[in-house]
Amino acid sequence: MTDPVRVRPLADGDWDAVVTLERDAYTGLGLSEGRAALQSRAAVSPDTCFVVDVGARTAGYVLALPYPPHRYPDLTRPEEPPEGPPEGPPGEPSAVPPGNLHLHDIVVAPGLRRQGLARHLLHHLTGTARARGDQRISLVAVGGTEPFWSARGFVPEPGVVPGDAYGGGAVYMSKPVAAARQTRARPSLSPPAPTLREVS
């Protein structure tokens, strides 16, 4: 891939491309949501929704939003703004503090798959979750993608998603958000003079 790759926040002008990518990825599974539902999910948490560009082309996207553990978006209706008590009914994000970021949707254009673009999006999302103070990232693996997510550290939690909610074989999965790596400073040629605490 010779064109530059860039992950950036999802903007209003991206929706035509996002809707097309989503429709092409999920219509065959009977899981396509349509523009209004997708936009409602992004509106809940715009700071955790991104696209990846390859050159001038929108090549993929990720939609994520805060949800309590073991809860997930209801595909039959748009998202409601988070408000009210911390524990809302199933299928609603509720007003929850950082803790669990739910990766609702990640799609890469068919002709650009297996080139690391999903990894770029996931890496960016993980950094965002870490900066928010989230401890875990969750998702619902659909269409036989459980092995893909298992290879990326997500652990299945069977029984969380009813069989009819996300199609046959859907599995709720999650993984902890790893702490940022600490980089060691290179030792200088002449070490600094010891402080009082170091010599006492």
TrEMBL record:
<dbReference type="InterPro" id="IPR000182">
    <property type="entry name" value="GNAT_dom"/>
</dbReference>
<feature type="region of interest" description="Disordered">
    <location>
        <begin position="179"/>
        <end position="200"/>
    </location>
</feature>
<protein>
    <submittedName>
        <fullName>GNAT family N-acetyltransferase</fullName>
        <ecNumber>2.3.-.-</ecNumber>
    </submittedName>
</protein>
<keyword id="KW-0808">Transferase</keyword>
<feature type="region of interest" description="Disordered">
    <location>
        <begin position="72"/>
        <end position="102"/>
    </location>
</feature>
<feature type="domain" description="N-acetyltransferase">
    <location>
        <begin position="5"/>
        <end position="178"/>
    </location>
</feature>
<dbReference type="GO" id="GO:0016746">
    <property type="term" value="F:acyltransferase activity"/>
</dbReference>
<dbReference type="Pfam" id="PF00583">
    <property type="entry name" value="Acetyltransf_1"/>
</dbReference>
<feature type="compositionally biased region" description="Pro residues">
    <location>
        <begin position="83"/>
        <end position="96"/>
    </location>
</feature>
<dbReference type="InterPro" id="IPR016181">
    <property type="entry name" value="Acyl_CoA_acyltransferase"/>
</dbReference>
<keyword id="KW-0012">Acyltransferase</keyword>
